[in-house]
Every structure is written in structure tokens, then in C-alpha cells.
Write a structure and sequence with these properties.
The chain is of the alpha+beta class and 736 residues long. The chain is built from 13 helices and 39 strands. The chain is 16% helix and 30% strand. It is elongated. The structure holds zinc ion (ZN).
């Protein structure tokens, strides 16, 4: 369940002002004596607050910095890619008066329990992790859990820290026991500095522009720097992390692909992590890793929050005064096994991340969780938060080495490739049709000058921009898990371009394929087509065309429908094919879909222009063909009459790495080789509904439906292909 989205949806209903809002409570707390208040609050919260000796009743206005914590769970039967739970926590500075057994410099991260909301999250409204402050007039704090229970009658307010700056002087004179102090380093810099700098810049831009009701333009701020990183290896009374300290050091700082090396590789040295060097209070030297023992028996208690509380407390004790943000930029807690079925979790725009034993050594878990620290949201797809497996913010893998980077939306946000990023509004650019050369992140340094790593399709009236990139499977990105060597199109679902927010993958295109974005920028019948045209320079340069279909006034290219069938063997990922023009421009006209299921027949239709020679190239990366040691796979091509042109695999059992077949498509029917005479026929879709069914049954549908149901290549009752009724929607127009 996407709690964070729900929070935001609820927030848009609840509040209209973006930065400061009172979520509930309209009366100032009366001055009754505090004991009766406490009893009243306890009564009200009785079903939520367990009995405890560690309760504190907060009666002064309490302020705390709000953070989103994202908990990642490993795959289950119900959730084959895993799932995540979002929770808001609050960062309090404890006063000795309230908690004498904890070092006063020790910050406390408390869960917020709000009986008004189902999941305890609605209370935070429009909060932005690391930038917003929660103010409550009254609460019960359980310092040992730790949790903050907020009674219904309490006043609750969320303010952006930007606004709060005006009130600094007031705060300092405040008697509040839980006042956060902006002069104190450990709190003022309540999130990691790079996230702070990068995001702050954007917020200022956004605020200044929003007065004019305009979208801000992108900034050049980037997530860069050298982060001093501390790994805390936590040992419980009865459980120890499997990896020894020296193994852990290798797995996080020095391996071929690990937290430090892969961030350095993906950012081209702009973001590095260096082991924190210092000493413990006992004068033990620290080189990146500190061992911390906690008095917790996991066999008795598998509550990770309890383990976290003790681990953080003991770490602050062990480090003495060396925990401020100015000293340490990232803290990775490696927990011993036995604290539940979670995989890892992290705070957004803050420096803490937590790993469940094996996850400590998983490079994808490290990059993913620290990605949250740096302000990155998940990369989802069709079904879950993790379905976009092209980069680290999708599913994580228990692997020691994974050479992969991030998807186009994250690449834009991270800002590492800003000199090769373009912001493009296809509706207003002077040309209705534009081509872009797109390179993968692994080619950033050797790309041609006009190539881009990210093309951002700006929607001026909406925040959900689209981002296009080339997921080239090579070099630093050679282990990308999904859609290798494809053009991917992702949309940022929430958040400004450089802010936290989830992205969702909308398309992954092979050569010749296209994707149409309908009603672009909320404009009725305004469609933008993204087509992956060609690939040149040994796989490096992907050329795409972005077309404003409405303005392009296109005419259809006459073509004939051919079919390529491929039945996979036991290794579906080994095979790929492409149909290119033989001679001439070498233009590509079709390519395989992603083959990921074993022993399955895939049917792909390609429309090939008339009067052209073609070459079909099929590749088996394992060099053993499609038949017969590893299953009975095959491939074959059929012409528009269903006649087989060529075939292989079980039709012609042999090993191969590359096979090539040449064929020609002759002149089309009705003199279609003569292109339209002047004036050209405008490329228009048929209006309204028409009977599309080829089997005699009456089925009345419009072109929009035809595209959505992928019926473009079906035939109507007269045998005419449906795309001929709907050339625009089906993308069969060519620019004049
Ligand atoms: Zn996550």
C-alpha cells in the first residue's frame, strides 16, 4: 500500500496552503492544571498508549523536525518484488529533566501516533521530509519505545522550515522543554547537508515562481560531495552480524561494486563516500566501522524499533561528542539477524539507514537506502513500487556486486549529468517534430556533444513530468536488471524535479517501437509520440523522435504487416532480433519485445514500408541457438498472407550466435508506392465510433479505444487494418 501517496492525497483535501497549515485544533489550550490534562489525554488515548513508566506528558508547545522513513520488505508470495511501508517520524532533542539516563546530546526519533488517522500519518499533511517542523500543543511521549501520542484535542501544525526562520528569536527564548534549537549543530543541520543544499535551492526557486503561477525552471544544483561515512556493526546479546568487520568494510567501501565505488562510478566522481576516521570514547581507533553492543536479546524480542533505539543510543555513547552532522554525513546501521522480516530502511533527506544482516553487504540495498537519504523515491512500474528494475530505486538484490545506476527521473534529480540534460516542452517548441540522440549513463564521458543522458518532457500545467533515457546495458550499468538497451520513459508521480518523489515506468522501447502520451499536459486530444528510431556507433547512440502529433499534420507511410514469431527456450534473455533496411539508410523497422518467460510463444507485428530491402538479424548471446538442449524454441517470419519467409531453431536445429536473413517487400497494392500528390492528405483519425470487428459481430469503438486495446494491427469487417482508420493514434503517420 502506498501510504505516502495516501498522505499526499489526504493532504490536498485537508489543506490548501502549501507551507504552513493548522491541521486541527482551533482553541488555545486552557490553563487547567496539568495533572487533569494528563488524565484526560491518557483516557482519550487509552486504546493506543500501552502502560509504561516512561511516559512524559508534554504540555508546552513541542516542536520537532519531521522525517519520512521508508521501510523496505523483501519479496513474499503476495508481493513477488517486495513491498514498502512509509512512516513519519519526528526528531526531538531530549532534555535531561525528562530523560536523565540518556546523554543530553542524544537525539530521539519518535514514531508519531495519531488516533485521528488510520495509519498515524495524516497528521503531517504536506510535510516535506527534513524540511518541515511539527508543532503540537500537547502529547504523551513514551521515551523508551519511543513514540509520541497526540490526543485529539491537541493543536497540531506543520510549518516549513523556511517560514519558521522568521521565528528563530522566539524559539530561543521559549521555555519549551522540547524546543529544538537552531543554533545546535546536531539539530539545525537535521538532514544531510547535500540533500539540504540541493533541495533548498529548488524550493526557493519554486516559491518565487509560484507567485506568478508558473512552474520553476530546473536548476543546476546536484547531489555532490565527499561524504564521511560510518558503519555501525551492531551486536545483540544473542545475535551477531554474519559479515565480519573487515568483510563489511570491503563490501561497503572497496569492492568492485559497492556503496562507495558504485556511487563514485555512477556520478563520475562527483559523489564519493569516504570511511569516517576518528576514535571512540575509549580511544579505540575507528576506520569507517564501529562495533556496538546492545543489551537486547533478539530471541525474546524481535521488535526492530527497540533494537534501533538501543543501537542509536549506544552509538552516541560510543562516539562521545563525534556524532554531529558536521563530522559524519552518513551512518549505516548493520543489524544482526532476528529482528523481523524487514530488509532495510532509511530516512529521506537524513543520514541514517538500517540494514537487516545480509542486506548490509548487498550493493543494491546500500545504493537504494542511501538513495533515500539523498532524497530519492522509489522506481515503480505497473504494479508495485519496485517494478522499474532498470536502476537501484526499484527492487533490491542480495548480490555482492551489481553494476547498475539509476533511472532517468533519478538521473535528472541527482544532477550528475546536468551538462547533458535537456528540458523540452514538445507543445510549444517551434518544431513539431524533433530528434534527440540519447546516450546511456555509461557513455556519459565519451558521448558526442549533442547527445543527452536525460530528456525531460515538461508539462507546464502539471508536475508529473516525463523523463526519457537510454538504459544501455554496458560498463557501469552492465548489470541493469530490466529493459537493457531500451529507451525508457518514466513519469515522476509526485514532487518537483529535484525533490523526493516516486517515479513510474510507462514504456520501454526497442528500435522501431513508439509510445504515445495522450492528453499531454492535460490538453484534450493533444498527443505526443516518442519513437526509438535508430541505434548507431556500436550501440552507443540511440536516436529518438518526439512528435507533437497534432501539429505535425502527418500522412501515413504505406506499409505491409509482417509477423515475427519466437518461441523462447529455457533461457529467454539470450535472444534478440532486429529488422533493418538492407543498404540505404540502415533504418530499423522492428525489434523484439522483452523475452523474459521460458518456453513461451511471442508474436510481434511489424509494418514494413513497400519497395525496400530488409535484413533480419537474430542473436543468441550464449551461442547455443534456440534448440534443442535447452528447450524447443524457434523463430520464423510470416508475410502479410501468412506465408513463412524463413525460420530457425527447431525448424533448423543448430547452434548459432548470429543469423541473418534477407528479404524484400515489393510494391504495395493500389499504387501505394506513389506517395500522396499535392496537396497531401492530412493525417487524420476517423471521428467517433465505427464497427471495428472483423468477425461480423458489431463492435462500435473509437480510435482512442483501438489504441488503448492495442488493436491497431487487427482488421475490420472489410479486411482493412484498423490503423488505416486511426493513423494518428496508431502512430502510422510520417512527418512531411
Ligand atoms: Zn526503498
Amino acid at each position: 500500500m502506498n501510504t505516502f501517496l495516501q498522505v499526499l492525497l489526504a493532504a490536498t483535501v485537508l489543506v490548501s496552503s502549501a507551507s504552513s497549515s493548522t491541521l486541527r485544533g482551533s482553541t488555545v489550550r486552557d490553563q487547567d492544571e496539568s495533572q487533569s490534562h494528563y488524565q484526560r489525554a491518557l483516557r482519550e488515548l487509552s486504546s493506543f498508549v500501552p502502560e509504561s513508566e516512561h511516559h512524559r506528558h508534554l504540555t508546552e508547545e513541542t516542536k520537532c523536525r519531521l522525517y519520512l522513513q521508508v521501510i523496505d520488505y523483501p519479496p513474499t508470495e503476495e508481493h513477488p518484488r517486495g513491498y514498502s511501508v512509509d512512516e513519519w517520524i519526528c526528531f526531538l532533542r531530549l532534555d535531561d529533566e525528562y530523560n536523565s539516563d540518556i546523554d543530553s546530546s542524544h537525539p530521539l526519533y519518535v514514531d508519531i501516533v495519531d488516533p485521528e488517522s488510520v495509519d498515524g500519518n495524516v497528521i503531517v499533511g504536506t510535510a516535506r521530509s527534513g524540511f518541515s517542523t511539527l508543532l503540537v500543543s500537547e502529547a504523551i511521549l513514551d521515551v523508551k519505545q519511543p513514540k509520541m501520542y497526540i490526543p485529539r484535542h491537541a493543536q497540531v501544525k506543520v510549518v516549513d522550515n523556511d517560514d519558521d526562520d522568521d521565528n528563530h528569536d522566539d524559539n530561543d527564548n521559549d521555555n519549551s522543554a522540547y524546543n529544538y534549537n537552531n543554533d545546535n549543530d546536531s539539530l539545525a543541520a537535521g538532514h544531510i547537508s547535500i540533500g539540504h543544499l540541493g533541495t533548498h535551492q529548488d524550493i526557493n526557486d519554486y516559491n518565487s515562481n509560484s507567485n506568478n503561477n508558473q512552474r520553476r525552471t530546473s536548476t543546476t544544483s546536484a547531489v555532490t560531495g565527499n561524504l564521511k561515512t560510518l558503519v555501525v556493526r551492531v551486536t545483540a546479546i544473542d545475535s551477531e552480524v554474519t559479515a565480519k568487520p573487515n568483510q563489511l568494510f570491503d563490501n561497503i567501501f572497496t569492492d568492485d561494486s559497492c556503496l562507495a565505488t558504485q556511487y563514485k562510478a555512477c556520478s563520475y566522481g562527483k559523489l564519493t563516500m569516504q570511511p569516517y576516521k576518528g576514535t571512540t570514547v575509549d580511544n579505540q581507533p575507528i576506520n569507517g566501522i564501529v562495533d556496538v553492543k546492545v543489551g537486547v536479546k533478539l530471541a525474546k524480542n524481535d521488535d526492530v524499533k527497540n533494537l534501533q533505539y538501543h543501537a542509536v543510543t549506544e552509538t552516541y555513547k560510543a562516539m562521545g561528542g563525534a556524532m554531529p552532522h558536521s563530522e559524519i554525513d552518513l551512518v549505516l546501521f548493520c543489524f544482526p539477524p532476528g529482528s523481523g522480516g524487514w530488509a532495510a530502511y532509511a530516512m529521506v533527506n537524513e543520514r541514517f539507514s538500517y540494514y537487516n544482516n545480509e542486506a548490509c553487504s548487498s550493493v543494491s540495498a546500500q545504493l537504494h537506502e542511501v538513495g533515500h537519504n539523498l532524497g530519492l523515491g522509489h522506481s515503480g512500474g505497473g504494479k508495485t513500487h519496485y517494478d522499474d528494475t532498470t536502476g537501484f530505486m526499484g527492487e533490491s538484490y542480495n548480490e555482492d556486486d551489481t553494476h547498475m545506476c539509476f533511472n532517468p527521473a533519478k538521473n535528472y534529480q541527482l544532477g550528475w549529468y546536468d551538462d547533458k540534460v535537456v528540458d523540452y516542452n514538445p507543445l510549444t517548441h517551434r518544431d513539431a517534430v524533433r530528434t534527440f540522440v540519447v546516450n546511456g549513463v555509461s557513455d556519459y564521458k565519451n558521448s558526442i556533444s549533442k547527445a543527452n543522458i536525460v530528456v525531460r518532457l515538461e508539462m507546464p500545467d502539471k508536475t508529473e513530468d516525463f523523463y526519457i533515457g537510454f538504459n544501455r546495458k554496458t560498463g557501469i550499468n552492465r548489470d541493469t536488471k530490466g529493459d537493457g538497451d531500451r529507451i525508457t520513459v518514466v513519469r515522476k508521480e509526485i514532487g518537483l524535479p529535484k525533490e523526493y518523489g516516486m517515479s513510474v515506468k510507462h514504456a520501454a522501447l526497442s528500435i522501431g517501437q513508439f509510445h504515445v502520451l495522450e492528453n499531454f499536459n492535460n490538453e484534450q486530444n493533444r498527443s505526443i509520440r516518442i519513437k526509438y528510431d535508430t541505434n548507431t556507433n556500436n550501440g552507443r547512440d540511440a536516436t529518438i523522435t518526439i512528435t507533437d502529433i497534432t501539429r505535425a499534420n502527418e500522412v501515413p507511410i504505406p506499409c505491409a504487416e509482417y509477423v515475427v514469431e519466437l518461441k523462447t527456450d529455457n533461457f529467454p534473455n539470450d535472444n534478440s532480433w532486429v529488422i533493418i533496411e538492407d543498404g540505404g539508410t540502415g533504418q530499423s523497422y522492428g525489434a523484439n519485445p522483452e523475452y523474459n518467460e521460458k518456453n513461451k510463444l511471442y508474436t510481434t507485428t511489424v509494418c514494413l514500408p513497400y519497395n525496400t530491402n530488409y535484413k533480419f538479424e537474430i542473436v543468441d548471446t550464449y551461442k547455443d541457438g534456440l534448440c534443442c538442449d535447452q528447450g524447443d524454441g524457434y523463430f520464423r517470419a510470416l508475410d502479410p498472407d501468412g506465408v513463412q519467409l524463413f525460420a530457425g531453431g527447431s525448424y533448423d536445429p543448430k547452434d548459432f550466435q548470429v543469423e541473418e536473413f534477407k528479404f524484400s517487400v515489393g510494391a504495395g497494392p493500389q499504387n501505394q508506392n506513389q506517395l500522396p500528390t499535392n496537396p497531401p492528405v492530412p493525417c487524420k483519425d476517423r471521428k467517433g465510433k465505427f464497427n471495428w470487428s472483423g468477425n461480423g459481430k458489431k463492435k462500435w469503438r473509437n480510435c482512442r479505444w483501438i489504441l488503448r486495446r492495442k488493436k491497431c494491427d487487427k482488421s475490420d469487417k472489410n479486411g482493412k487494418q484498423l490503423w488505416m482508420h486511426c493513423p494518428k493514434k496508431c502512430g502510422r503517420c510520417s512527418a512531411r
